[in-house]
Amino acid sequence: MYLAWKELYRNKGKFALIIVLVTLISYLVYFLTSLAYGLASSYTNAINQWGANNIVLNYEANNNVMMSYLSDDEYDRLEVDGEKAKLGFLPVIINLKDASEDIDTRQAVYVFGVDNDSFIAPEEISLITEANGVVIDESIKEAGYELGDTIEIATRSGDKEEWLIQGFTKTTTYQTAPVIHTSIDNFRLAAFGTTAAPVVSAVVIKGQVTDLNNTGAEIVMVNYSINDFINTLPGYTAQVLTFGLMIGFLIMIVAFVLGIFIYVLTVQKINMFGVMKAQGISNPFIANSVIWQTLILVTFGMLLGLALTLISGLFLAGVVPFAINVLFYVGISAGFIIFAIIGGLFSVRTVTRIDPLKAIGA
Amino acid sequence: MKNLIEMINVTKDFLNGEDVIHALKQTNFSAGEGELVAIIGPSGSGKSTFLTILGGLQRPTTGQVLIEGKPFSQLSDKQKSKVRFSKIGFILQQSNLIPFLNVKEQLLLHDRISKKKQDKAWLDDLLTSVDVKRLEKKYPNELSGGERQRVAIAKALYHNPAVVFADEPTASLDTKRAFAVIELLRSETKRQKKATIMVTHDERLIDYCDKVYVIVDGVMTQKK
Fold first, then answer.
1. Residue B142 carries which DSSP code?
2. For residue B27, which of A152, A260, B18, B177 sits 20 to 30 Å off, Cα-Cα?
């Protein structure tokens, strides 16, 4: 470690350039991870808030909650070990009622119709006092929506429903769009034009389904685990895989680049190492300094990259779906270190193969 | 006088395709306390083979090398490294200094590796005797060729080895500096009772040496 530090100290310029390179790549990796995680979260935040284990959909819906309808009868038939909750699900376009003609305030959102005493209802549901009251994800504020605003919903029946914003919820987004939580009745009004339709979209279960009680030979209800359900959200798996691959490759590229740098530096020092070996200095001592040097470079680069990421996050929060996940950062940092050491080991092999005889020019 | 290093019936053969090259024919050699020995000869004569076998960097084909009466050449590479580290000091043609350590750190590196602390007075004494005390905070690239060689001598002596090997220690120096370096090598050899073996082709230096050997075509003969 001593030699590693001394050399770094004496050749600050050269090593600073290497650190800058590692910093930039690790910045990219951390930043991309934060974005990927932020984006993935904004797909599933509202679902993750439930803390549920399973979701039951209509068989014909093919795992697509938008296409799923379950009757109140079916809900009643469903036997579970735990809790069950009705979910009315509807994608809608909302607009401010008093929107001016020249500013477009239309927003795509998802309506989650829930019973206010069910476990999938957000705490803020208690803020609702009016029959047409709703709570909505706070990200809608950026579009100019405020507490007490009346919003218009274009329904399938062609009528316009008017809802009143009575509160805001936190981290309740679905497929990156804000979620409106309201009563099952309001969902039915928006979806079917009447509160009399005894239909919801799905049943969310905390615990396990003990009996689907499908009548006769016909399969009506199918149970999915929440994880399976999330993984089949349109685009979710593709996006997570794409980011994962990019991040994985970038980590390896860093290791590779660093490995090459260290290797070149080692080759430049073959003579010096040879002389040291002639003097009886052991391979482990020399190898140690090579590995320490790799570790010092990668650690500095990594920490700077992480700092840049966090600073960027401060400025970009709200503009892009940036989310911090300490566990991912720790994992990626460990990946950097492990791969960098593997890169450094190539140089160690070179060191052990140096023949002091050749190095001293005999 | 005690023999610090001995070479007994050593030969070294190399294979060059089908041919066997006798790089070193049967050689006996010894050097004792306070002796400065010169090995001279044209290039390709076997000087380097001789010195590297003596220093344990090559294995002799037959015969053996003893250091302080103990077998050396038959040890494993790892054990030889250990013996070299504690018993041998090297002064090389191209200086054996580490570019990113200052003069003082060059010497202290040995302590750091062996994890033994030597006397501070010994360090100062050594740096003063080779006249580089005032340079102890300088790095090798800030020193002249003569200064570098003097530091290399101090470095070779710092861990108090039994034997010092010097390979063309004056190669890059002008006459005046070369004599100064060799004078220093001689006085330190006497003062610290080392056996110093110097390979050179500079015949002007032999007046300073106690013994002089000449190697020609792998055969060593004593000249002085």
1. G
2. B18
Interface test with A, best of B54, B87, B98, B110 (most A CBs within 10 A): B98
**Which of A33, A19, A11, A12 has its CA nearest to residue A302?**
A19
Closest partner residue to B96 (CB to CB) among A6, A275, A282 is A275
Residues 6+ away with beta carbon under 8 Å from A242? none
Asked if A186 and A132 touch (Cβ cutoff 8 Å), the reply is: yes
**Rounded distance between C-alpha atoms, residue A349 and residue A356, angstroms:** 15
Partner-chain contact B100 A280, CB within 8 Å: no
ipTM: 0.84
Domains of chain B: 3-222 (3.40.50.300)
Checking phi first, is residue A190 left (phi over 0); if not, alpha (psi -120 to 50) or beta? alpha
Q: Of all helices (H) and strands (E), which one includes residue A227?
A: helix A226-231
Residue of chain B with shortest Cα separation from A11: B100
For an interface test with A, which of B48, B75, B102, B113 has the most A Cβ atoms less than 10 Å from its Cβ? B113
pLDDT in tens, B36-56: 999 988 877 888 888 888 888
